[in-house]
């Protein structure tokens, strides 16, 4: 059903344990693509498949570097900044790092972060700009370095922490994602089992989130799941 912004503002005002679950839609206003989009002629969902990354390592690294360069030019929009300003805990599917760049220290990045690499042997993690184009080897153990992102077919990061947040929150905002991918479907089921009010924002989060948290009464509406 739908409820007006004032009602949602009151719910958010009266609940201290607010959780935001975010997807690619929250970063549209920052100029970033969604996974179904193409990037230099290749679909992102294909680029980030484990099979493709292993079979076409050189191509994967080349596109990955292009993407990190372009994503570094993107800036957090008003939606990211609002969540950061109010200290909202975020569980995100995004790999763009914009929540952290907005200053939010309460972020779980289920799919990792595009701007870091990790050694597959010892687990050493470092910023991508610290490695050269032709040296994808760990400086500690000489193991292979890979982007610290979850590829299709791999387990997500910090699922236990995410489940803990979901089980203890008192209100939830779902922003820029239709929650079609596991494990978000299971996390949503937990929210509903606990009768947590869930507000879904699919578009214009950069306008709606500042409104919801500023207590300014507008006529815009969001869907209550």
From TrEMBL:
<feature type="active site" description="Proton acceptor">
    <location>
        <position position="111"/>
    </location>
</feature>
<dbReference type="InterPro" id="IPR050134">
    <property type="entry name" value="NAD-dep_sirtuin_deacylases"/>
</dbReference>
<dbReference type="InterPro" id="IPR026590">
    <property type="entry name" value="Ssirtuin_cat_dom"/>
</dbReference>
<keyword id="KW-0479">Metal-binding</keyword>
<dbReference type="InterPro" id="IPR029035">
    <property type="entry name" value="DHS-like_NAD/FAD-binding_dom"/>
</dbReference>
<feature type="binding site">
    <location>
        <position position="138"/>
    </location>
    <ligand>
        <name>Zn(2+)</name>
    </ligand>
</feature>
<feature type="binding site">
    <location>
        <position position="119"/>
    </location>
    <ligand>
        <name>Zn(2+)</name>
    </ligand>
</feature>
<keyword id="KW-0520">NAD</keyword>
<keyword id="KW-0808">Transferase</keyword>
<keyword id="KW-0862">Zinc</keyword>
<feature type="binding site">
    <location>
        <position position="122"/>
    </location>
    <ligand>
        <name>Zn(2+)</name>
    </ligand>
</feature>
<dbReference type="GO" id="GO:0070403">
    <property type="term" value="F:NAD+ binding"/>
</dbReference>
<feature type="binding site">
    <location>
        <position position="141"/>
    </location>
    <ligand>
        <name>Zn(2+)</name>
    </ligand>
</feature>
<dbReference type="InterPro" id="IPR003000">
    <property type="entry name" value="Sirtuin"/>
</dbReference>
<dbReference type="Pfam" id="PF02146">
    <property type="entry name" value="SIR2"/>
</dbReference>
<feature type="domain" description="Deacetylase sirtuin-type">
    <location>
        <begin position="1"/>
        <end position="225"/>
    </location>
</feature>
<dbReference type="GO" id="GO:0046872">
    <property type="term" value="F:metal ion binding"/>
</dbReference>
<dbReference type="GO" id="GO:0017136">
    <property type="term" value="F:histone deacetylase activity, NAD-dependent"/>
</dbReference>
<protein>
    <recommendedName>
        <fullName>protein acetyllysine N-acetyltransferase</fullName>
        <ecNumber>2.3.1.286</ecNumber>
    </recommendedName>
</protein>
<dbReference type="InterPro" id="IPR026591">
    <property type="entry name" value="Sirtuin_cat_small_dom_sf"/>
</dbReference>
């Amino acid at each position: 059903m739908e409820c007006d912004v004032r009602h949602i503002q009151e719910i958010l005002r009266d609940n201290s344990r607010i959780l935001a679950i975010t997807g690619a839609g929250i970063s549209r206003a920052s100029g970033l693509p969604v996974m179904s989009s193409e990037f230099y002629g290749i679909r992102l969902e294909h680029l980030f498949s484990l099979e493709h990354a292993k079979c076409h390592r050189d191509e994967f690294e080349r596109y990955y570097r292009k993407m990190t360069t372009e994503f570094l030019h993107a800036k957090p929009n008003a939606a990211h900044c609002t969540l950061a300003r109010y200290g909202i805990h975020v569980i995100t599917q995004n790999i763009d790092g914009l929540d952290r760049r907005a200053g939010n220290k309460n972020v779980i990045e289920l799919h990792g972060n595009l701007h870091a690499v990790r050694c597959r042997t010892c687990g050493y993690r470092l910023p991508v700009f610290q490695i050269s184009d032709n040296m994808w080897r760990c400086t500690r153990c000489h193991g292979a370095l890979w982007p610290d992102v979850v590829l299709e077919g791999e387990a997500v990061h910090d699922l236990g922490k995410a489940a803990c947040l979901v089980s203890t929150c008192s209100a939830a905002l779902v922003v820029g994602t239709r929650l079609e991918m596991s494990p978000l479907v299971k996390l949503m089921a937990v929210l509903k089992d606990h009768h947590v009010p869930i507000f879904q924002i699919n578009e214009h989060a950069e306008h709606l989130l500042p409104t919801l948290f500023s207590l300014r009464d507008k006529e815009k509406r969001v869907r209550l799941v």
